[in-house]
Amino acid sequence: MKRSVVISVVLVLSLIIGISSALAVEVTLFGPKQYVRTSGSPDVFADTFVGVPGQGTLIVKNGNYDGGHRVEDGVSSATMSVNGLEIFGPNDFNQNVYYLETTVDLIEDNTVDITLASALGSYITVEVTE
Length: 130
What we know:
By secondary structure, the chain is an alpha+beta fold. Helices cover about 15% and strands about 50% of the residues.
């Protein structure tokens, strides 16, 4: 009898944990927003967004991925900071890198600073999720 009760409790808890995991939703806090390189001096962009203190995910898509393992219109030189901390630098960007993702520490009021110094018309798309 005790064994069947323990097994039943374990099964119910497993079901509850499974349902709560399935209901977990990724929330976009910022973006997706596209930043395009213009002519002249490097382009400098600054944006703010509200977040929940803790960890978030920074996602950067560099240009357009054409499906043939090529990136079109991707930047070759950029820096990106979140809340004053450089997350990605010039060595992280080139025409062979389409997707960058990392965790970032978020606060209530967050800043994203981006500098693009690449070919005219190249671009990145930035998103922060929780």
